[in-house]
Amino acid sequence: MSGYNELIQKIKELKEEKNAIILAHNYQLPEIQDVADFVGDSLGLARKASETEAEIIVFCGVDFMAETAKILSPDRIVIHPDTNAKCPMAAMVDVESLGWVKDENPQAPVVAYVNTTAAVKAETDVCCTSSNAVKVIKSLREKDIIFIPDKNLGLYAKRFIFDKNLILWPGFCPTHHKINKEDIIALKKEHPDAEILVHPECKPDVIDIADHVFSTQGMVDHASKSDSKEFIIGTERELCYRLKKENPTKEFYPMEAICPNMKKITIDRVLKSLENLDPKVTLSKDIIERAKLPLERMISIGRGD
Ligand code: 13P
Ligand code: SF4
After folding, report:
1. pLDDT tens by residue, the chain, 305 residues
2. Lower CB count within 10 Å: N or C terminus of the chain?
3. Smallest Cα–Cα separation from 57: which of 106, 24, 101, 28?
4. Nearest Cα residue to atom 3 of ligand 2
5. Ligand 1: distance of its center to the CA of 115 in Å?
6. Ligand 2: which of 26, 41, 62, 67 to mutate, most ligand atoms within 8 Å of CB?
7. Which of 42, 262, 264 has most ligand 2 atoms within 8 Å of CB, for mutation?
8. Among candidate residues 163, 200, 171, 174, the one with its CA nearest the CA of residue 98
């Protein structure tokens, strides 16, 4: 057996021995996706974490996703193989500055994109993901709503919501920010039959030229159902690995968009973290209790794409 195959075999044995499950986001490296028990988007992963019977969750994704797993499954051990894998957008809103905006708008509930820290979630009313932002906002009775932290997702939601005033936060995803309309148009010229699928974290002018706007899981679901044979994928390029794996007869053209934090989770780190059961995600009981409510509301609202 080669060194790599031995490593994979060891991970599989340790998972079994320790009653562990590996959850991986769609942007994880191919070898991580291949060894995972479940690969999905933020909503699917949150749901899976809340339902699992396993004693240990090894979470392969960025910090807010691992925290979300811990909040929804506080009695389980949640391991985040590299604690430096942090989402820069989640770091664009903190409790103190959110407090100022809440003070200025005391009647407005706060909808938090799941890309936020646990401490920030604890100060909010309901969470959402890229799959269900519109559905979550529409579920609220209030007219004024504070939406944090992704301005692009908020602007996208505004296209479908006419009776509410969304107070947007100026956050953004640096990876999706780099996806340009011009690059998509150039790819479309090369592949005129390709459908353009983009993520709602993209800039408004990119959304304007898309055929469909989906969460990462929404893109996976759509690609398998669609009659199209070719797709231009406006999100982090690793999603194309899963898309091709599940649709080998179709073609997927990625953009130059890489999330460097997602790539910090390596297969060696996954093995090490299973061997040592470290680094564990730890959150205070108070934060878990307060952050759980908005997350459970989000899960009960369900998918929107
Ligand atoms: P999804 O929930 O659509 O997978 O998005 C998560 C994310 O961080 C996108 O950048
Ligand atoms: Fe955060 Fe963007 Fe990376 Fe998603 S792609 S985890 S939003 S930095």
Report:
1. 789 999 999 999 999 999 999 999 999 999 999 999 999 999 999 999 999 999 999 999 999 999 999 999 999 999 999 999 999 999 999 999 999 999 999 999 999 999 999 999 999 999 999 999 999 999 999 999 999 999 999 999 999 999 999 999 999 999 999 999 999 999 999 999 999 999 999 999 999 999 999 999 999 999 999 999 999 999 999 999 999 999 999 999 999 999 999 999 999 999 999 999 999 999 999 999 999 999 999 999 999 99
2. N
3. 24
4. 259
5. 8
6. 62
7. 262
8. 171
Residue with CA nearest ligand 2 atom 6: 87
205-253 residue pLDDT tens: 999 999 999 999 999 999 999 999 999 999 999 999 999 999 999 999 9
Domains of the chain by residue range: 2-86+262-282, 90-172+287-301, 179-254
| Residue whose CA is at the smallest distance from ligand 2 atom 2 | 173
C-beta 52 within 6 A of ligand 1 = no
Cα of 60 from ligand 1 centre, angstroms: 13
Q: Which CATH class, in words, describes the domain spanning 2-86+262-282?
A: alpha beta
Single-letter residue type at 191: H
For the segment(s) 90-172+287-301, the CATH number from 3.10.450.50, 1.10.8.60, 1.25.10.10, 3.40.50.10800 is: 3.40.50.10800
Ligand 2 pocket residues where CB is under 6 Å: 62, 87-89, 115, 173-176, 201, 236, 259, 261-262
- CA distances, 97 to each of 91, 102, 103, 120, 149 (Å): 12, 9, 10, 10, 11
Instruction: Write down the number of H helices and E strands in the chain.
Output: 15, 12
